[in-house]
Amino acid sequence: MRVERKMSHLLAGATVVLGVVVTIAGGGAMVTHGMIADETGISGWNPWLWLILVAGAATLLVGVLQLAAVLRDPTSFAEARDPETPAPS
Questions:
Q1: pTM (2 decimals)?
Q2: 41: which residues sit within 8 A by CB, 6+ positions away?
Q3: Measured between alpha carbons, how far is residue 84 from residues 2, 80, 87 in Å?
Q4: What gap in Å lies between CA 12 and CA 10, rounded to an integer?
Q5: Taking each helix axis from N to C terminus, what angle separates 47-72 and 3-40, rounded to the nearest 10 degrees?
Q6: Is 68 exposed, middle or buried (0-12, 13-18, 19+ CB in 10 A)?
Q7: Residue 80, Cβ neighbours under 10 Å: how many?
Q8: Do 63 and 10 form a contact (C-beta atoms < 8 A)?
């Protein structure tokens, strides 16, 4: 397996992991903010937490699409091809 293919797999997997981490962190922050809002009587609405949650979900979606593309055609993200490997038809 060429370096470009390995890097594509690694970057797509890292994007998925980043999306999962940001989504979980956003959800945890929303729960914490909701508990504090309930105890203190302030409004629990915080659009920035929703933005973090949506950004994490979008990052996860992009990572899954990248991973699907890499697994379907490992040369799709590679700029250079091995001269001995025929071009995909």
A1: 0.73
A2: none
A3: 12, 12, 9
A4: 6
A5: 160
A6: exposed
A7: 9
A8: no
**Structure tokens, 42:** 């302030």
The mean pLDDT of 54-70, rounded to a whole number, is 94
Residue owning tokens 């979980």: 24
Distances (CA, A) of 27 to 7, 32, 42, 52: 30, 9, 19, 9
pLDDT tens digits, 19-28: 999 999 999 9
Spatial separation of the C-alpha atoms in residues 19 and 12, rounded to whole Å: 11
Q: How many CA atoms lie within 13 A of 61 on its CB side?
A: 6
C-alpha pair distances (Å), 87 with each of 2, 9, 78: 15, 19, 12
CB 28 within 8 A of CB 22: no
Of all residues in the chain, what percent are helix, strand and coil, respectively (each to 5)?
70, 0, 30
